[in-house]
Specification:
There is one protein chain. The chain starts with 7 loop residues before the first strand and ends in a 7-residue tail after the last helix. It is of the alpha/beta class and 262 residues long. It has helices spanning 19-33, 50-57, 83-88, 99-103, 109-122, 134-138, 142-153, 183-200, 203-208, 219-226, 243-255; strands at residues 8-12, 40-44, 63-66, 93-96, 125-130, 166-169, 210-214, 233-236. The radius of gyration is 17 Å and the shape is globular. The chain is 42% helix and 14% strand. It has one domain: Aldolase class I (TIM Barrel, Alpha-Beta Barrel), CATH 3.20.20.70. An 8-stranded parallel barrel has the order 1-2-3-4-5-6-7-8, surrounded by 6 helices. The chain binds 2-phosphoglycolic acid. Residues 12, 170, 175-176, 214-217, 235-239 line the site of 2-phosphoglycolic acid. 2-phosphoglycolic acid binds next to strand 8.
Length: 262
């Protein structure tokens, strides 16, 4: 377990930076970690900076993702962005069901599932985020909540489509709080997610699935978290906004777990 999955470290910029800062950060990352082939590096900027970021990392191995998308292809959906539009500006990935979409904007599991299915149909690779609130953890319901989010989010996704899917386990109480899950807490949930995927699909799908951890990942906890056998990378918010903070996390992803990559 864990040895054959290349780690995937992605920055979720959320609603931060401006055009100049975003393009400069993307250029810096392309220069510093853009040629690594033993870890996948991703950048997920706000919609309006996607093209600038994609242009800045062109020719490197860095992948670009959006933070959300619409379930529809085109038409009268004011304020929405389609999967085809994301592809058009150089995106390959899209974060779906992030905790802030679920809990600030009220996105339910069914809508997130529609987005996952549409992303896959469009040829985008979804990063499906799941995670429990603190009261759910305290009530011992973490695996129930995460399991429900995964079963609902992946409803109708075929086994062969799962190669394009990443799951990000992001406990809500750890996001932006500076209070990360311990490596043991993360490992426990990641292992439960992988076991669930083995039941929903099969052992091969479960074994190949990349499960990122997200929630206050920083340079000083990244290696320990990604050193756990079922923690296959990180989805990084705050610490992805500066190259000095993000590059060491990427470097930790290269070596953590003694993974061979490729
Ligand atoms: P954080 O955010 O690293 O700032 O906690 C992670 C995320 O929300 O993806």
């Amino acid at each position: 377990m864990g040895g054959s999955r290349r780690k995937f470290v992605a920055g979720n910029w959320k609603m931060n930076l401006n055009l100049t800062e975003g393009a400069a950060l993307a250029r810096a990352l392309a220069q510093q970690v853009g040629r690594l082939d033993d870890v996948t590096v991703g950048i997920c900027p706000p919609f309006v900076y996607l093209k600038a970021v994609a242009d800045a990392v062109r020719g490197s191995r860095i992948v670009v993702g959006a933070q959300n998308m619409c379930t529809e292809s085109k038409g009268a959906f004011t304020g929405e962005i389609s999967g085809q539009m994301l592809l058009d500006v150089g995106c390959t990935h899209v974060i779906l069901g992030h905790s802030e979409r679920r809990h600030v904007y009220g996105e339910p599991d069914g809508l997130i599932n529609d987005k996952v299915l549409k992303a896959l149909a469009d040829g985008l690779k979804p990063i499906l985020c799941v995670g429990e609130k603190i009261e759910e953890r305290k009530a011992g319901r973490t695996n129930v909540v995460v399991g429900r989010q995964i079963m609902a989010g992946l409803a109708g996704v075929a086994g062969e489509q799962m190669a394009a899917v990443t799951i990000a386990y992001e406990p809500v109480w750890a996001i932006g709080t500076g209070l990360n899950a311990t490596s043991e807490q993360a490992q426990e949930v990641h292992a439960a997610i992988r076991a669930l995927l083995a039941r929903l699909y099969d052992g091969a799908v479960a074994d190949a699935l990349v499960i990122q951890y997200g929630g206050s990942v920083k340079a000083d906890n990244a290696a320990e978290l990604m050193g756990m056998p079922d923690v296959d990378g990180a989805l990084v918010g705050g610490a992805s906004l500066k190259a000095e903070a993000f590059v060491p996390i990427v470097q930790a992803g290269r070596t953590a777990g003694g993974c061979c990559g490729a």
